[in-house]
Amino acid sequence: MSPQEKIIKASHLIDMSDIIREGNPTLRAVAKDVELPLSDEDIILGEKMMQFLKNSQDPAMAEKMGLRGGVGLAAPQLDISKRIIAVLVPNPEDEEGNPPAQPYSLQEIMYNPRIVSHSVQDAALADGEGCLSVDREVPGYVVRHSRVTVEYLDKDGNKQKVKLRGYNSMVVQHEIDHTNGIMFYDRINENNPFEIKEGMLIIQ
């Protein structure tokens, strides 16, 4: 049974045992485009990936299933070399601890996502990045584009185009990197991990 056949079973919930770790060759492969029209298997896979992110962000479910919290997941991390990513970025509570009007600033399953244009300005997250496929901390600024325009297909096969900036831009670039065999630490300056080049934006 292939990893995808296992994951799309009705009874299966993605957990940490489904996620491959660094050193697995699938994480270094360039993933294949998904074919159109989208197959039921690929649509279900995308929905299962989104469900994992929701479970990982739900304290009770995450504890019960032993999940690390995540805001993004790419199919290659499940040992499935296809260009499919899911991103789920929650909006923060307000200063008084009230829930936000919109729970998520970004909630999308993207098929064949591609960056079609980007800013000249670079950016990095102040706290660095982590990855569900990397069981260690890698300190340093992960240098990315501060703004990107991404084209992708939704689950109905419609072409979508979205402009992203700030944290959402970082999350989507991290996941698209997975479909190109790139790990986040490839973008850290080995000799000077916390180098800030002129004009680089540090996102808190």
UniProtKB/TrEMBL annotation:
InterPro entries named in the record: Peptide_deformylase (IPR023635), Peptide_deformylase_sf (IPR036821)
CDD domains assigned: Pep_deformylase
GO terms (BP aspect): translation
Entries under SUPFAM superfamilies matching the protein: Peptide deformylase (SSF56420)
Gene3D superfamilies linked to this entry: Peptide deformylase
Active site: E175
Cofactor note: Binds 1 Fe(2+) ion.
Primary enzyme class: hydrolase
EC number: 3.5.1.88
Sequence similarity: Belongs to the polypeptide deformylase family.
Function, as annotated: Removes the formyl group from the N-terminal Met of newly synthesized proteins. Requires at least a dipeptide for an efficient rate of reaction. N-terminal L-methionine is a prerequisite for activity but the enzyme has broad specificity at other positions.
Annotated protein name in UniProt: Peptide deformylase
